[in-house]
Amino acid sequence: MAEQEKNRISVEIYGHTYKMVGTESTGHMRLVASIVDDKMREIHVHNPSLDSSKLAVLTAVNTVHELLKLKEQVEKLEDELKKLKG
């Protein structure tokens, strides 16, 4: 099996430049960086005293929370689908 080619880009998140490397498209990686930047700025509005390190952790916590909620919704929808098929 051939290894997927890796894309490398520079992105800006909350005023800092980061190099991203991944097998996803550069458009996807830019979208991810943009969403992280937006979320950090949104949280900063409500918590202006947080330094960027604490802001990044709070952003990660909020993002994982949203991920878990979405996984829960997917599981519920999959269960409903099984019931409808059964």
UniProtKB/TrEMBL annotation:
Entry GO terms, CC: cell division site; cell septum; cytosol; plasma membrane
Keyword Cell cycle: yes
SUPFAM superfamilies reported in the protein's UniProt record: Cell division protein ZapA-like
Primary site of residence: cytoplasm
GO biological process: division septum assembly; FtsZ-dependent cytokinesis; septin ring assembly
Lineage: superkingdom: Bacteria
Matches recorded under InterPro entries: Bac_CellDiv_Activator, Cell_div_ZapA-like, Cell_div_ZapA-like_sf, Cell_div_ZapA_firmicutes
Keyword flag Cytoplasm: yes
Compartments where located: Cytoplasm
Keywords: Cell cycle, Cell division, Coiled coil, Cytoplasm, Septation
General function of this protein: Activator of cell division through the inhibition of FtsZ GTPase activity, therefore promoting FtsZ assembly into bundles of protofilaments necessary for the formation of the division Z ring. It is recruited early at mid-cell but it is not essential for cell division.
Oligomeric and partner information: Homodimer. Interacts with FtsZ.
PANTHER family: CELL DIVISION PROTEIN ZAPA
HAMAP family: ZapA_type2
Similarity field: Belongs to the ZapA family. Type 2 subfamily.
Protein name: Cell division protein ZapA
Lineage: Bacteria, Bacillati, Bacillota, Bacilli, Bacillales
Gene that this sequence comes from: zapA
